[in-house]
Amino acid sequence: MDAVFALLQEGPAKDLTMEAVAKRAGVGKPTLYKWWPSKAALIMAMFHERIAVAVKAPASAATAEDALRTTMRRLITGLNGLFGKVLADLIAEGQGDPALLRDLFEDHIKARQVADIAEIERAQATGEFTAAVNPTHLIDMLFGSLIYRRLLGLPLTQQYGTALIDAALRGAWPRG
């Protein structure tokens, strides 16, 4: 894991090889293949162990809006760092490996999505958000656009995140 972590800080996943990992780790390639069937599986294991962000909603948030804003800030920070680089690399690698994309979603993205949807449903139940808003669509609008910008190399700033939340929540707040 140390070798993969270090190599991914130096270059993209597409340039990472099992040979390079084995050399950096001081082991033979058969040792790597004993535990991980592919380069993608090794990268995913390292991502899960070392990089992936926690899936729990912010514990200190008084409202769903506060929780979403905290999640937005944390995700933007992460996407601008090694987390975002490796996530983008995994998505790119996954274009030729649907099982990798499925694992990425099931093991990392889905849990965060479920927690955010539950937060929005709680807000609907308390009247903070209108019942007319679709929680899944709101999450996709907010966080899908961050992934889009990361994948295309577009600027991803905290100011952008704030403006995105402000615009999306205008439709979620009850009228009056």
Give an account of the 3D structure.
This protein is mainly α and 176 residues long. The protein has helices at residues 2-10, 18-25, 29-35, 39-51, 64-79, 82-94, 98-126, 135-152, 158-170. It has 9 helices and no strands. The mean pLDDT is 89. Helix 1 crosses helix 2 and helix 8 packs antiparallel against helix 9. 72% of the residues lie in helices and 0% in strands.
Tell me the span between the first and last alpha carbons: 53 Å
The whole-number mean of residue pLDDT values reads: 89
Oligomer: single chain
Return the structural class: mainly alpha
Computed CA radius of gyration, to the nearest angstrom: 19 Å
Q: Please indicate the percent range of residues in DSSP E strands (runs of 2 or more).
A: under 5%
Q: Count of DSSP E strands?
A: 0
Compact description:
With 176 residues, the protein is mostly helical. The chain has nine helices and no strands.
Topology:
Blueprint: H1 2-10, H2 18-25, H3 29-35, H4 39-51, H5 64-79, H6 82-94, H7 98-126, H8 135-152, H9 158-170
Helix pairs in contact: 1-2, 4-6, 4-7, 5-7, 5-8, 5-9, 6-7, 8-9
Keywords:
176 residues; mainly alpha; 9 helices; elongated
